[in-house]
Design a protein that fits this description.
Layout: E1 6-11, H1 18-28, E2 31-34, H2 35-42, H3 48-57, H4 70-79, H5 81-108, E3 113-117, E4 132-137, H6 140-151, H7 155-168, E5 177-180, H8 185-201
Parallel strand pairs: 1-3, 1-4, 2-3, 4-5
Helix pairs in contact: 1-8, 2-5, 3-5, 4-5, 6-7
Length: 204
Amino acid sequence: MGAKSVVVGLVGPLASGKSVVAHELGDLGAEVFTADEVNRDLLAPDQPLLRKVVEAFGPGYLRPDGSLDRAALGRRIFEDEADRTALEAIVHPAMTEELARRVARARAAGAPFVVVEAAVLHKMGAAGLVDVVVRVTASREERLRRLIDRDGLSVEEAERRLAVHERLGLDDVPAEHVIDTTEGLEATRKQVRELWEKLLSGDN
């Protein structure tokens, strides 16, 4: 059964609702992996990848307990395109390799559906891991509201973050299916269930 596993890539811009869709697919029975969780695992204290990041950006981004100061590094790469590109060159290949290992294990274990949630799936070079792409989207107004309410950002900061993601073109990635989360959880769940039925029927 492992050879018949379908691997679904979830993509989409900031605050579009990818995590919600991934959670719903998980509840329906999919094995879910997220780029964020892989990133956290690979950049945990004493991990080789963390040492590479510290070598490139300096020990000032390590907390006293040896963990990465993600907020500080995030501010740096947010402001500097060259720094963000440099960090991605270090981190993305390792993340893609680890995601490939996890997907392979899930397939070998017979998981019929595997979900990879990664906003920059294509940019990080991991698009080859998936069989079908689902783009999660929401109106810009709704994504702005979520950033302000969820993350406690000012309107100006939320706008700046959306602008960065817009430059990356994350809401314009080719996809076989699109889920729009603008109208809230129940409408999203309905779309996820419809997608699940299509996947079960082989209509990928």
